[in-house]
Amino acid sequence: MDVQTGKIIGFKLVKKLMVQGDLERYACGSLLNELVNEENCKIDIFLTDRHKGIRCDMRINHSNIEHEFDIWHISKSLMKRMKTLDKKYPDAFLWKTSISNHLWWSAQTCHGDGDLLVKKFTSILKHISNIHEWVEDGELIKCEHAPLSNDEQRNKLWINQNSESYFALKKIITAKDCIKDLAHAKHFIHTGRLESYHNVRLKYMPKRIHLKYNGMYIRSILAIIDHNSNLNKNPIGEKVVYSKSLRKYTIKTRFEPTKSEWRRVLLENIQTAIRNGVPVVCEQFTYSNKNAPKNIAPVTKPDLDDLKAKRFSRFSSNK
Ligand SMILES: [Zn+2]
């Protein structure tokens, strides 16, 4: 997806056994190569999840492109770690939502500076211990929130810097891998629009329906046309929706209804092509499914009669 326009500009559909090894790494690497070398796209920043193989491929083959991680993925993994505090350190666990909000705020306000992002985020350790002003490397640093009222001071469950809860929380907040990845979220690009594309994709490829490679390929294209045709919908009001993650009703923006004009245009184009004798059958598509195996089984499909014969011989030997 091109972040500026929200358009899906390319996709790779890879099936197990189609390639040896890491599927995500292969799909991501080959798509990036196509975009850069064949489509002449100038890519400055490439946003992905934190998949190890993709990171490795980016470092080796695309070192000129800045590799950025989605803050949503970082937040999700941080919250998973926070969950481990739930039983043993409930006082630290209570800060979960504040820490998540602080992470998003830090990424949003660091202006593309990775060091500043890390500094802002880890400063939460001061705040939760009721320290809102401190000296770091000879510099006076303050929390950016408004001064706290006496009531706020009294009612917050501050964490003592000498408590076990504090050390458990500090271990999570300052974990080396978390800090290293956090600096890769400095541009605050997140993939909310990609989520909406995935929802459209589910409409064409419901998970409960088994689809063959070709079917998935064509349906991917339809999902992309649908998504790209419905970008920049105007807001027309607000609605109240129940949020599963927040466990409460929240206000969301209501947008114009989805347009499906593209389907009529597509059908008309097909009809015109048929009338003009232009071939429109699927075999004419040049999609790269040559390597797609028929199924994901690692062994060759046996003959039905052979399998039946084996089944009966096994029954007879059990007698
Ligand atoms: Zn503070």
Automatic annotation (TrEMBL):
<protein>
    <recommendedName>
        <fullName>Transposase</fullName>
    </recommendedName>
</protein>
